[in-house]
Description:
Layout lengths: L9 E7 L8 H11 E12 L6 E3 L3 E3 L8 E6 L2 E7 L3 H10 L3 E6 L19 H4 L5 E7 L1
Parallel strand pairs: 1-2
Antiparallel strand pairs: 2-8, 3-4, 5-6, 7-8
Amino acid sequence: MEQRLNIPRVDTVFGIFSLGWSTNLPGTLRLIHSYLRPGGRFVFSWEHGMFQHVEFERRLIVQSSYFSEVVVKNKWKDQYAIHIQFPTTASWFELLQSAGFTIDRYLEPESHIFDRRSQDSWRHFSKVKALNVPMAVVFQCHR
């Protein structure tokens, strides 16, 4: 994501739960902007910044501050194998606008589809948590 691709400009770029893995989010957003034709659309989803901070222990509990903008980094063989970030909603707006995007739509969709594993309330993506805290954000933007 962080390296320029040699591709012609496109009309639409989609990102489904992918951007938070970028090690250089501002740079990645600038690259995506550069790949779009004028008026081109960028639509992406990511985990809602609040979802990371809430756990269920007999009830929903806020475990840490939403404003801390969690960055998860785990090393493997002296290299970062995992890099995940969870910006606040305001930070997403700032990052997108700084990269040159105009934000057309922002959504926090309710979760309606749950698999068998989501019934376990201790899981990160549990049904009880997803029914009470926005699980995802979806942005629709244009160049």
